[in-house]
Amino acid sequence: MAVIISARRRQDMNLITRSILLSFLIVYGEGYGQNSNRFFQKDLKITTFQNTSIKNYIYLYIDNSTLFVGARNNLIQLNLNNISDESQVKTQEVKASQKNMKLCEFNGKSKEYCQNYIKYIVREDESTLSFCGTDANTPSQYTAKINGDVMSITPSTAKASACPRDPADNTTAVYVTSGNPGNVAALYSATFNENGKATISRPALTAADNSGISDKLENADLLAWLNDPQFVASFDVDDVVYFFFREVAVEYSSFMKKMVSRVARVCKRDLGGSSLLVNKWTTYQKARLNCSLPGTFPFYFNEIQDVQLVNNTFYGLFISSVNGSSGSAICAFTVETIKARFADKVFTSKDAVLTPLAVSKIPDGFVPGKCINNSKILKDVEENFMMDYPLKYAPIQQHGGAPLVFLDGIQLHVLQMDKIRSKAGGSLIFYAASNTGDVYKIHSWGDGKNQTISTVFSPLSETEVIWDMKFHNDTLYISMDSSVKQFNVMMCDKYKPIDTCLYDPYCTWEGNETTFAGECKCREASMQNKVVDGMTFLGIPESVKSSRTHEDIPDLMKKYFEIAKNNVTNRPVGETQSTTLPHFYPFNLDGKKVTWYYMDNGKKEEVNTCKDPWQLTIDNNLVLSRARKEDNDRTYKAFLGDKLLNTITVNLMTKEADVEDIWKAKFTEWCEVFDRVKRYTMTCDKGSCGNS
Fold it and tell me: Whole-angstrom Cα distance, residue 214 to residue 476?
């Protein structure tokens, strides 16, 4: 049966639906779903672990198929594939002792403070984890034995020298299994000990027969060694252990208080000294890390927040907050550059501010900080030198002379990397979490010369600090005070603009480069890397010549603008009907505005989108809300700056048959739009909005 729509009926439908459709188009645009690279909680498939009786999920540790979570008074095991799988959740309560809690509160601390906050987790062997807790201002060390599905926790009888009293103090620890004296495994840690003193330490080492190999080693109690530090990360590299931290700089203390970032190192074979440095490191050295924007007056990022090690390069996350100007940067420091700095003989003088120590002050024949088998043989004068001069004079320079990544006005605090893909070379993929709950996926390539924020994840419904974050198998795990969440980072099917797709290192665009119709696809893991000018691009198969990378974006844009010069489309519309004129620009506008013009008697007139019958959607398409007689054969042109994007000629349909066809098409369009709106709303209600 033919659909017959009377003139009166058409008018009624026009009046009823126009305001609804226009409101929807103006607010959401025609592509009302995800048009940018930011994804909110509703756009992500988020899995959550939350126990209302547990708070402060501070520390995350991934081991095989398990996510261990260090929380307040609890150690939790979660299934890495689905952290909300209750059948796989195992929770071990590790409460502060009643005795310690009473004493803690008696000493004026709050009930919140006087709990047991787990600060780190390390694996000792196949069946043993070691972790520490603040234990109500009296730090304790624990051993967790894992036998199948059973985990038993035993507190250590010895004092926990590798754990802070204050839950707010940062701690870092690394379990070193080889290279120590006697090749005995040992925990190296940096924290504030039970006496509130900042310390980098290694416990006493004993042989299998319980004979002593090495006494406990720690730093000398001097401000020149550590001055109010906050420790960030530690790494076992070759024959040394590196510690990254920020501290108040002693070299500036005579005239200003300045925070700086450092890396320190100790030799694993260090046995301590025999006179001044008994039970102290004889190889401790530290140097400043220079992460700054170059220029006549460099802008320094002085507060290191986190560090990752990939391909013998340390990637540090730094922030700066100077004179109200805040920002974040990621700088690279190669292991080779760090080793070279610690091998030089230029130290900072303690007698003059920012002055190098004369090389003649170094004892004859002595190589400060050299890793030797028996540090007990050092002379008194050599131990005295190591005691007095731990600081290198020159800073360790950032690789490439500038940050790999700089974000203005954003404070980032936690850093992870896709190490597997980044190890392939060329592209580096960072994940950095802010203090407001956002996570930035940052793509850097060309040896740091190019970078982009490829994706911004906003997985939280409310602003909350992300305390820790781990990346594993294309999934991010984040921990907050209230919960732990996981979500997949592969978003290729949600991108619309071509460049937004290609800037994501996991995606490639395949389509017709004449009409620029195509789709964003995930790069398959089996794809071979493509090498261009010595750089490796992830997952581009040599056999698929049409696949594109971020390097192709300028060429694709150039092609589009050339084609757009001759691109003319006709838009039929019935009188008084509405229609949307698309600009068809397939790339991200980056906040730029499309300007619309119409031709009137050969003159180009700018469209006033604030005046009826024109309105602009959020994606810069033009809505002609009520076609008039003067719109017949009128040509509209969309420009981005001086670049023509599209030319559209409006054809006003006046014949009854044509009008009926237009209304049938319009009716079908409305049905499709309303159906999409309905499905979109339903997916939003379920917490997973996408592009329908």
Answer: 41
